[in-house]
Protein: Acetylglutamate kinase
Organism: Archangium minus
Amino acid sequence: MSKLTDFRGRWFVVKIGGELAMDKQKLAASVGAAVRAFLDAGIRVAVIHGGGPQATEMQKKLGLQPKMVAGRRYTDEATLEVMKMTLAGQVSVDVASAFRIAGVPALCTTGMSAGLIDAKRRPPKVMSGAGPDPVDLGLVGDVTGVNTEAFQRISDAGFVPVLGSLSGDAQGNVLNINADTVATRVAAKLGAAKLFLVSNVPGVLANKDDPSTRLPTLTPAAAREKIASGVIQGGMIPKVEESLEMLEEGIEAIHIVGISPNDAVLREAEQPGSHGTAFLRG
């Protein structure tokens, strides 16, 4: 078991699913409390959030039909407007509110602000779980750069950068980016000691309907076998694939962890595999 103070001066990156922002008291007591503990231990923290459930709800209210491909959202012009409203508006404010309850000095924005994240439109590509043909996800971006100096300056000023997963390029083109993708790229560029992917799912499950089948640790080889055999499926596939790719780029450990119990994220930080699934190099 490691002590948080062992990571003093290092970065932890925390990604939270949009569904977690729907209960700000729970978010404050779990992720918010963990982030506060990290800060108290001298750890630098960056947070990335998604907004999938809120975007889907807003699309339906506007008479738009969400389209998902291999666990990812197809983004046309109308959908991009919805993502702006939810990620930069509704979810951003709700996360800021929860973190304020927890005493976390969150500075909430998106990757577009100050060029924190650079991105380009993703070309059609073959995706796991979507068949053999290349898939065009529309106005979806791939991260091409992370302004690590800006992250450092925000942290030095005493704030926690909290980004909704929108970004774009120097020409002002805005793109929707999978929040796991943003989190893994940010963690890699910051040289993060740990990346936490937090949602309502308590880790990678051998049986997706049975939390008791959680796999405590996975090596890259074991994870790829689980994808190939169909144990890992749906929206978990891109999450795991991004994790494996970023392990190769220097992140020391990646943790897929649930929000319950309240101390799950904090305990997973101290003892990998105890409250989630830890991806370790090997």
Remarks:
- The chain has eight helices and 14 strands.
